[in-house]
Structures are given as C-alpha cells and as structure tokens.
C-alpha cells in the first residue's frame, strides 16, 4: 500500500487544511497568548529588564516564536483526538490506504498552521518596533530552525492526541512546553539567574534555539551554537517520531 | 463470502466472544442480532481488520483477516456505529475524499452521482454539521459504497434515528443487496432484522445461539394459533401518517 503514500497523504492533507481554513479562530487563539506575552514584557516589564540589547522586542521575539509553536501544536493533538473519537479514524483505517498517511496529514497541517501563526506574530512584532537587518540566508536559517522545532513538537503532540482519554488531556500536555522558554535566555540573559536555575536554563534546548535565532536576526556570527540548536531539534524529532509511531502501531493493531 | 469460525476475543478478564461461527452467502443480507454488549461490534471490528481475534479464524471475500488484512480492506467497507463523516467538510467533499482515498478516477463525478442516488444533491454543498441525523447516516452509507466494495458492514445503522430516517436507511440497504452487495448488519432492533435480513443470527453472551431464516426462527416456537384480535394502528403507523410518509 506504500505506493499510495503520497497520494493518500495529499488527499488527507487537503481535508485537514480545510479544517484550518474553515476555523481560522484556531490560528487566532494560537497567536493571542504569545502576543499578550510580547505586549506584557515589552511595555510593562521591558523597561526594567537589562537585556543588553538596544531593542527589547528584538531580543524577545525568538522566545515568543517558540511559545507560539508550543501553544499551536496543542491543536494538532486536539484535531487528532477528535478524529479518533468521531469514528472517521476507523473509517480511514478500514480502507485500503497507506496507514501512516493519516498521521502525516495531521503533522503537515500542523506545520502549515504554525507557519501562519508565526507570520502573524512576526507582523505584530514589526508593528511593535522589531527590526532586523538579516538577509535572505539568515531568514531562511530562522525558518529552517522553526520548521524543525515545529515538526519535533508536532510529533510529540501526536502521542497525547492518540492516547488521551479526554479532550482536556489531549491539549493540556503543551502547558509545560509553553512555559519552558521562561526558564531560558528567551526573556532575560541567564547570567543573573541563581546557580541551579542558570545551569538548567543554559543547558535546555530552548536557550540554544533562541540564541541561534537571535544571532541570525541580529547578524551575529552563530558559531557552534546553531549546531547545538539543530542537534536538539533533530534529536527531539527522532525520539518523538519513534514514540508516536510505536503508539500509533499499538493503537491500530 | 464471509466465513467466521470459532472466533474468540477477551478484553482482560471479560470474555466477549466465546467461539462464534457463521457464514454469509454472497449477495445476501445477514443480520447479527443481540442486546447491547453482546459482542456484535467486536465481531464487526475483527472482520474489518481493526481488531485482532484471540483465537479462531475469519475470512472475507476469500481473504483471511489476520494474514491478508490489506486484501480484506480492499474488499470491504465499514459503516460504524456512529456516522463517521467529517462535519467540517461538505457532503460532496466527504464523498470526493473517500473516492480519492480509494484511488478512483474523477472523484467529483462519483460524489455527484452518489449525492443524487441518496437524495442529498441539494445539501451537497453544505457543511455536514448542518445535516440531520438521517442525512448524516445516508451520507455515511453513501461513503461506504464508493469503489463498489463487494462486502459492506453496517454496525447498528439505525440506532438513534427517527422513524422516517430509519425507513430511508432500510431502503438504501435493500437497494445495496439488490445490486449484489453482501451486507452484514448488526442491530438490536428485532423489526429491523425482520424487515431486511435474509438470514438472522442471534448473538448472546458471546455465542451464536440460533442462526436461520426468519421462517426457520419462527418454527422454533410452537405453531401459530388462530386468534381474533382487533387491528389497532401502531404508534409508528400513526406517526408516519401524520407526518405524511408511507411505511415502505
């Protein structure tokens, strides 16, 4: 059946993309929280934060983008959960289609939805004074990192989507992911944090990804940091994919 | 066409199927009758490759469900207990999606033909979320017919439907069998089995306790006595007359 994999995935992708375009509110609500954080930190706390950067919104944006993805992927779990509940999942499984096409369609839809949300957040940041002199190459680098990060978190979201018992359970898993950037260099430099917190912040994936995106935006040399960021994203992606696929195989066995 | 032998299935300590045997002839309607929890859905899920049996064997269209699941899936179509339709898509888009997933040419035309056949043409461009229960079920069955699978499983197709919608579904099932499709139907409604099925099997506590035609089942009880009873209209007759539909 794998010879139909691309055709089946495309057909199912068309289906779930319609779900998004017909409920744009899911994109809007995804962006509300990150935008609120951005407003709060730039206009309320920002004046008191020593970020060592001329423009705090420019300093902040990379972390906000990661929060956007973390809150966006909970909709992937939600949509997958609804499919499992409604019986349409079983209809697809009882049809002669490539079995993993069902998951891939959801994952690619998540990617599209998150890229739209990210674009909305970037536009708001531009209005708030975010400026970058980054060239095409640097922007492509940022895009690449965000795509990798989104895919990794989306495959992670597939697991609760397949296993959750309730709709709340399907989406609640993303809360810790949303708050992970607070324990990183996303909002403030890590130097002022006390020892153990600083050790955690400096060695967790968000910090390396945030720093890499920030360096790309401000045209600083990214150094070896970007490889650490890519390694985190790819590592997380591989592990999440393996777990999601084995969960899926157990579910459809 | 469908052959089930000594099928067993347990969920943890609960034995749902304790050795189920039956056969369904090509082009016939076979009703699996039983109360809630009798194991009807479990049988259907095993036959449609969604669940593995603990013991016994099952074959559909000559293919073994455990050994050749992909071939079985090409031969069947499942209409589950809850209408498995996409609420956000329109009726037409639902049909075209299934046609695409069955790798057929011209999904749009297939969708239009089925909308016409199931009297859904006017509703075809509307989101399924706006459909009534009967329309949803009709769309669900229409989706099952795409690609003309030789075997169709209908798991409690009329549960939760109003009397008019029920008659619409019955009509659709009869047309299916008339075209040569083999239908395995599960139901908890006795009149449904009586109306539709060529053969009826009663599944009780995980076993088939009887299996035969309606006439054969009736012969299990003492012969009919002649009694004179005033013919009262049933509530269904009253309801259908008042809302202006004929009982077919």
Automatic annotation (TrEMBL), chain A:
The transmembrane segments are 27-50, 56-81, 102-130, 136-158, 170-188, 224-244
Keywords (alphabetical) are: Antibiotic resistance, Cell membrane, Membrane, Transmembrane, Transmembrane helix, Transport
Query: Topology in the membrane?
Result: Multi-pass membrane protein
Q: Where in the cell is it found?
A: Cell membrane; Membrane
Please list the residue ranges annotated as the ABC transmembrane type-2 domain: 25-251
Which Gene Ontology terms describe the biological processes this protein takes part in? response to antibiotic
Entry's PROSITE patterns? Answer: ABC_TM2 (PS51012)
Q: Tell me, what is one Gene Ontology molecular-function annotation carried by this entry?
A: ABC-type transporter activity
Which chain positions lie within coiled-coil regions? none
Keyword Membrane attached: yes
Q: Which family does it belong to?
A: Belongs to the ABC-2 integral membrane protein family.
Annotated protein name in UniProt: Transport permease protein
Taxonomic source organism: Herbidospora galbida
UniProtKB/TrEMBL annotation, chain B:
The UniProt entry's coiled-coil ranges are none
Asked whether the keyword Transcription regulation is assigned, the reply is: no
Q: What Gene Ontology terms describe where this protein resides (cellular component)?
A: plasma membrane
Give this protein's Gene Ontology molecular function annotations.
Answer: ATP binding; ATP hydrolysis activity
Please tell me whether the keyword Nucleotide-binding is annotated for this protein: yes
| Major localization listed first in the record, in broad terms | membrane
Going by the UniProt record, its keywords in alphabetical order are: Antibiotic resistance, ATP-binding, Nucleotide-binding, Transport
Q: Which InterPro entries match?
A: AAA+_ATPase (IPR003593), ABC_transporter-like_ATP-bd (IPR003439), ABC_transporter-like_CS (IPR017871), ABC_transporter_ATP-binding (IPR050763), P-loop_NTPase (IPR027417)
Family designation: Belongs to the ABC transporter superfamily.
Q: What is this protein called?
A: ATP-binding cassette domain-containing protein
What organism is recorded for this protein?
Herbidospora galbida
């Amino acid at each position: 059946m794998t010879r139909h994999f691309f055709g089946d995935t495309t057909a199912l992708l068309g289906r779930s993309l319609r779900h998004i375009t017909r409920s744009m509110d899911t994109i809007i609500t995804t962006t509300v929280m990150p935008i609120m954080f951005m407003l709060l930190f730039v206009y309320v706390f920002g004046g008191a934060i020593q970020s060592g950067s001329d423009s705090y919104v420019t300093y902040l944006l990379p972390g906000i983008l990661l929060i956007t993805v973390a809150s966006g992927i909970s909709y992937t779990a939600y949509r997958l959960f609804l499919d499992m509940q409604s019986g349409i999942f079983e209809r697809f499984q009882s049809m002669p289609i490539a079995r993993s096409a069902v998951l891939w369609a959801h994952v690619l839809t998540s990617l599209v939805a998150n890229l739209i949300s990210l674009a909305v957040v970037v536009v708001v940041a531009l209005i708030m004074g975010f400026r970058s002199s980054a060239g095409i190459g640097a922007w492509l680098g940022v895009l690449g990192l965000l795509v990798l990060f989104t895919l990794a978190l989306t495959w992670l979201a597939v697991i609760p989507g397949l296993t959750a018992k309730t709709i709340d359970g399907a989406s609640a898993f993303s809360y810790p992911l949303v708050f992970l950037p607070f324990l990183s260099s996303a909002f403030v430099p890590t130097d002022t944090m006390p020892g153990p917190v600083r050790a955690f912040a400096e060695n967790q994936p968000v910090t390396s990804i945030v720093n890499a995106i920030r360096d790309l935006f401000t045209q600083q040399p990214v150094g070896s940091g970007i490889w650490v960021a890519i390694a985190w994203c790819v590592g997380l992606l591989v592990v999440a994919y393996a777990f999601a696929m084995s969960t899926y195989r157990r579910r459809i066995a | 066409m469908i052959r089930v032998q000594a099928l067993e299935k347990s969920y943890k300590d609960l034995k749902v199927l304790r050795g189920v045997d039956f056969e369904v002839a090509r082009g016939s309607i076979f009703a699996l009758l039983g109360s809630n929890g009798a194991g009807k859905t479990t049988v259907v899920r095993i036959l449609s490759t969604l669940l593995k049996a603990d013991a016994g064997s099952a074959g559909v269209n000559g293919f073994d469900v455990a050994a050749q699941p992909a071939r079985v899936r090409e031969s069947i179509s499942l209409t589950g207990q809850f209408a498995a339709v996409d609420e956000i898509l329109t009726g037409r888009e639902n049909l075209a999606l299934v046609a695409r997933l069955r790798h057929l040419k011209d999904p749009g035309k297939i969708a239009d033909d089925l909308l016409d056949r199931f009297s859904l043409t006017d509703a075809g461009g509307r989101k399924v979320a706006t459909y009534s229960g009967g329309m949803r079920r009709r769309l669900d069955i229409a989706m099952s017919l795409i690609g003309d699978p030789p075997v169709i499983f209908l798991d409690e197709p009329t549960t939760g439907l109003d009397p008019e919608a029920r008659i619409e579904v019955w009509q659709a099932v009869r047309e299916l069998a008339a075209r040569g499709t083999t239908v395995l139907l599960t139901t908890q409604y006795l009149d449904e089995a009586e109306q539709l099925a060529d053969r009826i099997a009663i599944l009780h506590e995980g076993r088939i306790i009887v299996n035969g035609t309606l006439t054969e089942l009736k012969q299990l009880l003492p012969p009919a006595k002649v009694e004179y009873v005033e013919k009262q209209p049933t509530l269904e007759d009253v309801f259908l007359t008042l809302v202006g539909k004929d009982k077919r």
